[in-house]
Amino acid sequence: MTSSFLTKRQRDELNASILQYFAASGLQASHEALRNELGIQDGGFDDDVINYNGLLEKKWTSVVRLQKKIMDLESQVDSLQTELDTLPSSSRKVADPATWLPRISKYTLLGHRQAVNSIAFHPVFSVLASGSEDTMIKVWDWELGELERTVKGHTKSVLDLDFGGRPGEELLASCSSDLTIKLWDANDEYKNIRTLKGHDHTVSCVKFLPDGERIVSASRDKTLRIWAVKTGYCLRTVDGHSDWIKDVVPTLDGELLLSVGADHLARITEVSTGDSRLTVAAHDHVIECCAVAPPASYTYIAALTESKRIPPTSSGFEYFATGARDRTIKIWDFRGKLVVTLEGHDNWVRSIVFHPGGKFLISAGDDKTIRCWDFTQGGRCVRTIENAHDHFVSALKWAPSIIAKVPNRTNGTKGNGNGQASGHSSISHGRNIRCVIATASVHMDVKIWMA
């Protein structure tokens, strides 16, 4: 008899499964022949191995699935090996955070019941919040890929989220189609401590200002509003857009606001007065997103301009980017002069972030891709992650950098999603870049991309 790698117990289970399969399939002759060949009579198996009806089919389909998974993984390995073989030997070292770009997602976070619209990183801890059309906010541990809690309070879609506040008093701000902004205490089980009302239409965006004591919101009612975090009072209403404001970002020094919207405009507004500093007809379609360039990028972007003058890193606002439904991303200087247009997306551009190392810009959109653009190569797309999600990629954020040492720091702490801590600390040189990106999708999932 040929030797077998199976134990007696495993052989009995296999024989019982085959006999059950023959009997269930009406193959009586085969059933009897196998029984006779094996010398098995009634009661020939232990009671706990007799009932194996359907087990053989289940094992077979499991093997097929595993074979397909193995083939997919082998294909990925071959693709990555080919890419690795084409790199110069000097590039095959441990990734430099200043040049790291996302490649393969580590976790897929599932739990929302409808499209995920927004994500936000905690400025200190490995915490990520996501907001969805299902009205829920979910709080995740992105290092472990685990759900920590579900936060309920809004009655309609949650459209944007942002962490902020003073150190040790971190808050999560959320805004919704229910016309409200809510503040949640991140240090007290995310209890709702304040609800801000005043907008007359959907609130599409909310951001903390660098001082941690004010927030700015953007709405479909065509206004920006600046609120006091401590009291919830609206300090100022800013007009100027003629259509839905889709996104707003404060500059790194907190003195200006960059806003974009369905009127195809990008506007710069003074926080202290609400006066307009600059208005640019930036795109030929709805502008979905914007981002302020960090000082680390000044050298690389300046090289693309005619003057090539490198602004001082002490400046809180020199360049900004806009992404639109016309499938393009545009980089501008603070005077409203176009620096470069990045083309490559096949559908709406939904989200953009500057790499904290300054050399790249990362974008995501309705073509289901993540794209990485290199300023040292004239803004060329140097990496495309196809099918980053199974549906439109709705949001993209970079984990805030760790502040190692910031002298004379008086203002609040938060991450702005560009891998920078907000306020003047973002202009210091005591940062450690975290190679972590999060993306969200209409497919109801969130993905974590890590080095």
UniProtKB/TrEMBL annotation:
Positions of the PAC1-like LisH-like dimerisation domain: 9-42
GO cellular component terms given for this protein: cytoplasm; microtubule; microtubule associated complex; spindle pole
A GO MF term: dynein complex binding
Keywords tagged on the record: Cell cycle, Cell division, Coiled coil, Cytoplasm, Cytoskeleton, Microtubule, Mitosis, Repeat, Transport, WD repeat
Start and end residues of each stretch annotated as Disordered: 407-427
Top-rank taxon: Eukaryota
ATP-binding keyword on record: no
Pfam families: LisH_PAC1 (PF24951), WD40 (PF00400)
Start-end of each WD repeat: 109-150, 151-185, 196-237, 319-335, 342-378
Compartments where located: Cytoplasm, Cytoskeleton; Cytoplasm, Cytoskeleton, Spindle pole
Gene Ontology BP terms: cell communication; cell division; establishment of mitotic spindle orientation; microtubule sliding; signaling
Major location (coarse): cytoplasm
Similarity section: Belongs to the WD repeat LIS1/nudF family.
Quaternary organization: Self-associates. Interacts with NDL1 and dynein.
Function summary: Positively regulates the activity of the minus-end directed microtubule motor protein dynein. Plays a central role in positioning the mitotic spindle at the bud neck during cell division. Targets cytoplasmic dynein to microtubule plus ends, thereby promoting dynein-mediated microtubule sliding along the bud cortex and consequently the movement of the mitotic spindle to the bud neck.
UniProt remark on domains: Dimerization mediated by the LisH domain may be required to activate dynein.
Protein name (record): Nuclear distribution protein PAC1
Gene encoding the protein: PAC1
